[in-house]
Amino acid sequence: MTAEAWPKATSVPPAPQDGEGAYQLCAFFVGPAEYVIDIMRIDEILRPQRVSPVPNAPAWVEGVMNLRGAMVPVVDLRKRLAIAGAAPPRMKPKWLVTLVGRRKVALVVDGVSGVVRVTRAEIAPVPPFVTQGVNPAVIAACGPADRIKLLLNIKVLLREAA
Questions:
Q1: Could you give the CA distance from residue 131 to residue 127 in angstroms, rounded to a whole number?
Q2: For residue 97, what are the β-bridge partners?
Q3: Distance (Å, whole) CA 95 – CA 83
Q4: Average pLDDT over every residue of 41-70
Q5: Which residues, other chains included, contact 30 with Cβ-Cβ below 8 Å and sequence gap of 6+?
Q6: Which domains does the chain have, with CATH numbers?
Q7: 66 contact partners, CB below 8 Å, separation of at least 6
Q8: pTM score
Q9: Helix (H, G, I), strand (E, B) or coil at 124
Q10: Helix count (H) and strand count (E) of the chain?
């Protein structure tokens, strides 16, 4: 799957390439909610690093970090998704260095919960009445009824007007 795999906010991932008909998604917490993104978008997972603020950047951009000589923007998902509340207990903050096209962006999350495998049948769009007022980057949901995960479209998430 390429980094451009989910170009539209309403799209679902293309056909799985693992030979078994399942998608692999990286699951993580931001506040009380659990989210997932395509594992092919994850370049690496880091502990929090030193950030240099960027004047006049959107409030949800913490700044930039130097990652092996490359300047990588750091986005706080709590601020971007307007999430209040405490982090889940026993979670350690992590940074997901994600690939968006040919660029890297670090996403600040409360904790990584693991890799999940889902089939296309397990990915369902979020009903429109539920998404009113929700960030448009939330494009679908998956998982068992007792642990639903929200699928994020990173490209939409990073748009200024999202």
A1: 7
A2: 44, 106
A3: 17
A4: 95
A5: 77, 78, 81, 83, 109, 110
A6: 23-157 (2.40.50.180)
A7: 72
A8: 0.82
A9: strand
A10: 3, 10
Neighbours of 90 (CB within 10 A): 6
Encoded amino acid at 132, one letter: Q
Closest listed residue to residue 150, CA positions, set 31, 41, 62, 40:
31
pLDDT of amino acid 150:
92
The 10s digit of each residue's pLDDT in 95-104 is 999 999 889 9
Kindly state the tokens that stand for 127. Answer: 């009903």
pLDDT band at 9 (very low <50, low <70, confident <90, very high): very low
Look up residue 83 and give its amino acid: I
DSSP 79: H
- CA–CA distance, 12 with 104 (Å, rounded to integer): 22
| β-strands 138-142, 149-152 pairing | antiparallel
